[in-house]
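Entry type: protein chain
Record version: 2
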Amino acid sequence: MAEILSVGIDIGTSTTQVVFSRISMDNLAGYFTAPRIAITNKEIIYKSPVYFTPLRTNILIDGEKVRDIIAKEYKSAGFSPEDVDTGAVIITGESARKENAQVVLENLSNFAGEFVVSTAGPDLESIIAGKGSGAYGYSLENDLPVINLDVGGGTTNIVQFDCGETVGKACFDIGGRLIRISEGRITYISESAREIAASLGIDIMPGDVAEVSELRQITDRMAELLAQATGLSHRFRTRELLEKIRTSGSSLLKEDFSPAKICFSGGVAEYIYKKNEGDPFRFGDIGPLLSESIAGNEAFGKERLLPAKETIQATVVGAGTYTTSLSGSTISYSPGIFPVKSVPVLKLSRLECEAVEKGNEDLLRDKVVWFMEQCDTSLIILAMEGPRDPTYKELTILGSTIVKVLDSVLSKDEPIIVVTEHDIAKALGVVMKQLGSGRRIASIDGVKVEGNDYLDIGRPLMNGLVVPVIVKTLLFG
């Protein structure tokens, strides 16, 4: 068994946190079988205070101040960059912009040279938060439908899990810092907060006195909007208002979804689970009022409330990294593709894989476009189990579907890279090349990955017989 030290850095619109963890890995295969390395345990050994994310503007990160925070927390944790083996930086919310990812990468290069640096759009952030809160694990282990609402400063990310499968995700501009207060007066109001206030006939402006009763009406309406969005309440029709405050790039939740459990994460969730006492404006915003409104809304009944494993930040813990080698007899690749580093993996579910094997181009195209937008990336690795013993006709349908879709979506200079679990990569790669798109193609099998994984694929070794593959698995806690 081996142990590595990993760090997770979570940079959101409102808050930033650093988490150090010890990750254990072991070979779970028998003595006479191929190695199967897996993560067997994770232990959080240091968790930083939650910082307000330093910004130069409302959406652009101050990279130097972020670096100062990270340096301070490395020192507080008692570690140096040389001690850390791997890790991940996740940028979410309005901070998830391409220029922000570049700023973070440049400023944290001394701390995160080999880390995954990833942006997550609103849908992907919903899934990440649901995994970090424990909602995903509860749904998987108990075969139950569970919904998670990650209520943060600027948005609420919602995900629906059914027996561990993600069946719906959405995001709305509802959060604790949409109205900010200082010295008893309102200093900032977001556009979505104005829309919600206007729906109540309330007109508030920066400079106005912060009236608790008036602001409570607004947070009560926010809570009811969340109940309406999740289908848990039908007290009044709010579809037009919901569409106005839907976060750009967000998907739609599954209708007629009846969760057995409801889980909350995010900063506002801290006071949904425990009694809220003290000055309602002690954090300079409406967060405490919003938590009271959600806790008091009958749609989120206590009998279905699932305690979250993590509330203030359903955060990335870090990344477990392990290496595997693949035989040249089972891979096919065009010259000049490798090496590639930290490429996000789009893992198709079993049902999605079956649909693609039957030639469903629309499903695959929608999935690929969605994933690339959420990750803000131009290159992906498509992963699937793949059929076990396909006929040539079945391989041709699968290869044709993949090539047609990715050829139409990827930019011209990006390769098509496919990884499968079953032993079909050599034949699949030959079929895809014969289709004649002219694009560089790589097909590799024997690689088991999950959603939220990233891959490094190194230069071919031993005269091209082997390519090293490094799997970077994000961990949440």
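Comment: The longest helix spans residues 212-229.
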